[in-house]
Amino acid sequence: MSSAADHTVFDVAIVGLGPVGCLGAILCAEAGLTVVAIEKEADVYTLPRAVNLDGEIIRALQPVGLATAVQQMMQPLREGERAGFANAKREWLFGGNARATGSNGWQPANMFDQPELEAYLRDTAQSHPNVTAYIGYEMTQFSSDPRQVAIQALGDEGEITLAAHYLFACDGANSAVRKALGIGWRDLGYDQDWLVVDVEMIKTHSLPNEVLQVCDPDRIHTFVATKDPYRRWEFQLNDGETAAHMLEHQTIHRLLETWTPRDTYRVRRAAVYQFHAAIAEQWQQGRIFLAGDAAHQTPPFLGQGMNSGMRDVINLAWKLPLVLNGQCAPSLLDSYQAERDDHAHDLVSWAVDMGHLMQHVAATEAAARAGEEPPQMQQTSRKSGYGQGREQPPIRSGVVLSKQVSNAGATGYLLPQPVVRDPEGKEVRFDDLLGANFALLTHGSVSMNQKSAALIAALQIQLLDVSTLEMVHGKLPELLQTGEALLIRPDRLVFGHTDADVSLDSLFTHLAELLGCSR
Predict the structure, then answer these.
(1) pLDDT, tens digit, 9 for 90 and up, residues 259-281
(2) 78 within 8 A of 209, measured Cβ to Cβ
(3) What's 90's DSSP letter?
């Protein structure tokens, strides 16, 4: 603990070193920023919580050289792995099969054990030379002015005072920062109590390799084949049931006995949670940003809680250096809420729709048992389920050419990442050719005016002619084959592309305006 911290203004302070805070610290530090992190828990939480990591997040670790190490912690694809909905007899109704490789160049859905991943991310963050970490310290007070944020924290070695240009609040659903700022929640209409049981399988078993939403009228529940040798169940509480009753050993074993014999598992964790669907009313207040569970809460049916939080810090980590380095105006950071709020709202709403879909399927089976007419499906459909044609939503506002965003276009979506063979014959993932900044993709040579060339130089935009590459696996947007150019953000989202109405120079003009940078 350097006493110099009392006199140093860090670029960014991060409160909370869970997976989201750790990723934020790593990405900001790798971008050359000085980071101070405060975490009240001395040790990583030893029990599982999140269990699914998107290939999109592993992809975000490529530029900092951590993707392969994280991928090695993930569960490889297992025979018969799929995710879907089932009736009370656990007979498959509909869903989708798991895939070994997705559009991001990595396995799309990856089961992992959070204590293992979180320990790796924390160790990586703490060991980075640009990160100063205060572990076992709890923030007691903070204040913000137009120039910086001041923080006080208390630990075993006493009180410390810190200062940073910006603060990321990654301190969880009960965020002390959010509460101190007086920021409330927008409720999206799902509050249900569920029992979550995590087990370690200790004997040979016959459990399926599935994520199964069991729409049983007697009790809706979920089974998740997490990373071997672990498994998870989530049971919705019925009317009149209490947390104390559900947490009794006999209750837990009775719920699991129809799935697997008592002697095949050891309970790691059992807890009753109220699943919430809510978005913070405000994500930014001055120099302070909410991220992760501090900004959004979701039912777990899509496995997007931690993934959404990681997208938050990925978004901030490419914008903050541009502002602090004077390349772009501070107003660039105002795009954070515009981009992340709508995207997180779409995913939370999708998870709520899945909850409603489970209830509808269960009610339909209950009606059939009773010989009654099935209920009408309201506010949801089978498209809410896995593999039913619904995809990750795009960003529709912020640093994006919003007039091009559609449900079927490239703009606003992540650029696919194929494996390509470069002119030297080496096979690489496409992002490895893009660098850490913006990139312009063309098919052949292009010309531009001096202002565009100056912006390319100022932002160190990578120019890449894809006609020099051979596609090995996957593909890039067809727009490139028709001669259009695509402008890619540092987070691999497509900013926009040329077309009949947008020339290359006007594309750069739009970018400069939205970034708030001079040309």
Answers:
(1) 999 999 999 999 999 998 999 99
(2) yes
(3) -
